[in-house]
Write a structure and sequence with these properties.
single chain, alpha+beta, 4-stranded mixed β-sheet, elongated
Length: 315
Amino acid sequence: MKKISLFLVCLLFMASQSFGQAKKPTIMVLPSDVWCNTNGYMMEFDNQGTKVKVPNYKKAFQENADLLTVISKINGLMADRGFPLKNAESALKTLESESAENAMLTSKGGAAVAESPVDKLKKTAKADIIMQLTWTVNTTGPKKSITFNLQGLDAYTDKQVATAVGTGAPSFSADLPVLLEEAVLAHLDNFNASLQTHFDDMFANGREIIIRVKKFDSWDGDLEKDFGGKELGDVIEGWLKDNTQKGRFSTTDATENMMLFEQVRIPLYDAGGKAIDARGFCKDLQKFLQAPPYGITNKLMTKGLGQATIVLGDK
């Protein structure tokens, strides 16, 4: 009987240790596109000849004091629940510094990937989840309340993985953080549970990214080129099968000139515990293709954290 009791105690101890060490996703809180558009914080971005509107977070943070207050409140609520945070303002300053340095470098020839300022911000911050917040203040006589919409987006795929929508009870308080906390608190635990479920799935099955393989027009080879009885496209699929989490990926499209791989599941961390993004994962594929017997010069380009393109035949 004593042995059984001791065994159960050990099991409970191991379970509590495991729960206590459960890793949580890294969060970055940003105003939503809708909020930025409503309040005049948008800018135009030239996406390969097409003008698109993207949020101007830098201007919003510099000019809107309410935004800083709201972001700080959400950051505090998430930090209290043990979620590690990436500060959006700090990431913007780092991005600005890196952009100035990159502008001084001479770029090599070859194709380019259009990467919006939002893509660059995500790549700089390297958060797992982007929390987008929309809010409006309602006034009824002397009382005020807040209606909010909180979205949790996978920073690598932009897929929505959690949502919470609600309106707080009318209050005589005019303090924006107090109104926001009253509105959000009742929904926050369910929201966080959805985030954790998504993150646990990534631990078990890998993080999802997209990989494209193309060729330069100047290259005389293609993806049907034969290497020891196997076409180059089959060689690349074999590499993905060996290196993705549980061999999981989908070949969405494949011709002699291009291949598109979606739902590519990559490990969350490398052997040193560092988070792996599309660039880090594809650098190994890039080296594999450059090495014998393939010897294919290639160029690696990335868009945000979750999309990578390898162009064969030049650099």
